[in-house]
Amino acid sequence: MERTKFKHHTQIRVRNYEIDWQGIVHNANHLLYFEVGRVTYLCDVGIKVDINTIQHDSKVVVARNEIDYRSPARFGEVLEVYTRISCIRETSFAFEGFIEESASRRLISENVSVHVWLDHRTDRPLRVPEEFRKWVQGFEGSNVSIP
Amino acid sequence: MERTKFKHHTQIRVRNYEIDWQGIVHNANHLLYFEVGRVTYLCDVGIKVDINTIQHDSKVVVARNEIDYRSPARFGEVLEVYTRISCIRETSFAFEGFIEESASRRLISENVSVHVWLDHRTDRPLRVPEEFRKWVQGFEGSNVSIP
Amino acid sequence: MERTKFKHHTQIRVRNYEIDWQGIVHNANHLLYFEVGRVTYLCDVGIKVDINTIQHDSKVVVARNEIDYRSPARFGEVLEVYTRISCIRETSFAFEGFIEESASRRLISENVSVHVWLDHRTDRPLRVPEEFRKWVQGFEGSNVSIP
Amino acid sequence: MERTKFKHHTQIRVRNYEIDWQGIVHNANHLLYFEVGRVTYLCDVGIKVDINTIQHDSKVVVARNEIDYRSPARFGEVLEVYTRISCIRETSFAFEGFIEESASRRLISENVSVHVWLDHRTDRPLRVPEEFRKWVQGFEGSNVSIP
After folding, report:
1. How many domains does chain B have?
2. Average pLDDT score over residue span C21-49
3. Which residue of C lies nearest to D26 if distances are taken between CA atoms?
């Protein structure tokens, strides 16, 4: 991943209960860390994340997740979660993220996730709204690919 | 994924606390379901999963996870988790898995994960042991690719 | 707890990711196991657990939890979760539960939880509905205390 | 709980995936928050929390948990977790904790947990070590009860 393209990061401290029997952060918890990154990103960019989705016409669901585990994260470590929206297509968009240990800048893991905009009732794909496109472009500039 | 190649499946019932605010199984829980599939597979094939890894010379870690979410899983649904080892390389091997809703056979999600064998102390890659290769070949036959 | 009063139990197999760095089921996961017991109890007694609470007039929330840990649960163990409703008061009711390892009948943990019926909008306590009282009495008979 | 007796607090932000289908923090997650409080407390007081327990002669396990839920915590809220050791007995000690929403100081929940010192191999109770008693007394002063 091209690190220079990332403008957003947030910090997480590894918690006791996130460690598995191997003494490292369990592989599924990386997904949760990246989600913290994405939610914080959206809030910071100005896009309201609203849990009352049932009242809305549309919803956004995760369609795909890729994670590469580069080195184990350990109890008590402080992690920087870097997040960006790399691409917006017709009805979907992609986040990229990577996690570094804060002090050593050791690479922990990398994530690409794809999200689809759906009609809340019919589950049919919808065009990613203009407002969302503008917000992301406003923040990412030319780093976000919009074919 | 070629469904006919899967010889192993195990059953899971979606639990209350695995549902998120969207009313569906949270995306990270799919990883946990696939892990249940893998651990059950290893036990059923005869490979002991031992949590006292600290006493061993080697350990196995997850290097990569890919998940495609095909349709949401909902509270109370019974899921079939299909699992196979598709490939064994020099120092790593790959699992494939998919999840179906039991009654309707609706496809829920698909997973490919890559696992690496490491020296417990030095974290250097080790050759996947002969014993493991034989067990898997005994179960998978020609379905497992061993280049 | 008076074991002879329990008419309902359900089975759980300890999963890999529920084990913490001490090699035992993490203390918070016992709460999740007891919840599986309660939800299964309600379903089996005929009380529909509906996640679409937002469409209802009332909701049920957890007001208190007590857990006594008697012995550690370990990876791969099969657990029996025993559940009963021990008491229905004006606006609340109490569940009792205990967990046993299936083969040895070793006591793992015990739980008492208190649940309150609330108006969905105002969060004011509501009288536990007659229908619920009847269902529980029908199943528990004289074992449920209704002062 | 006597709030003036608490000298330690730490901050948590409610994460997306900690919210359940009712739109509030799931009841089991409160236990995790209190654990974050306890682990941070121990670190800040100078007591090393070491996950390599297998190499030690003794271990500390949770014997009991009580949680009173006072008001729901919601997505994005910042929580203050207050923690203190209220009592040290011969072979056990007790933590007290409470959680407040940071801005409004709304009480979220309260916790009492009891922890027992055990011999790592025999699981027999051990006397709480002098060093631990001194550390806690040094931090808590006369607020900690040592009968």
Report:
1. 1
2. 91
3. C62
